[in-house]
Each structure stands twice: as structure tokens, then as C-alpha cells.
# Entry
Amino acid sequence: MSTTGPDDEQPTPKPSRRDLLRPVELVGGSALAAIFVGVIVLMTTRDLQFAGISAGIVFIVVLVVLAMFALTFKDDEAIDPRDEGPEPGAEPPPTRQGRRRRRPRQMKSTRSPARPV
# Structure
């Protein structure tokens, strides 16, 4: 039976300030978009309830879209070194030497030739 003591545990890395403020950026951006839409709808319709509903819908939609975009980006530390390419000293991929490049085909004109008048 193995026991782990406090000396065996590795300290967890402290998240950076940027990582801590990322949710605030997402909520702040969606709040700005919601306020903008709410003010525009309120100025055009003069209906407070409709403006509030529109702002709420925009807030949720923008928050979800920004969160999805945030999930697609990888941090530099999270990149797998195996995805970087071939190892140094590895053979380069074969090339197509000796083949001539084809010239692009010229398109034929569909216009009829000009007739002298």
C-alpha cells in the first residue's frame, strides 16, 4: 500500500491574470452588445419590455458565440510538440523533380468576331 505525503504532491500552477479575466471579458463584451441593441430597439419602438427582451436575447447569443470562439483557440503552452512537424534530422518528404509545369489553358472567346460595317 503506497501513501502519498504532502512532499509527493506537485504544486498546481497559478493561473495567470489573463486566464482569470477571460470570463469577465466574455460577459463584458456580450453586455455591451446587449446594451447597444437594447438602446437601439428602445429608441425605435419606445417599448421598454420589447427592448429588454431583445437585449436579453442578444446577451445570451453573443455570450455563447464568444465562448465557442474562445474554446477554439489554443494557448501556446497547450500545443502538442508532436504536431510541430518532422523531427530534426528526419528525411524530407519526396518531391516531384523533373516534371514540367503545365501551362494553363487559354479560354476560348464565345463572342462572335466583329463584323465590318
Remarks:
- Residues 17-45 form the longest helix (29 residues).
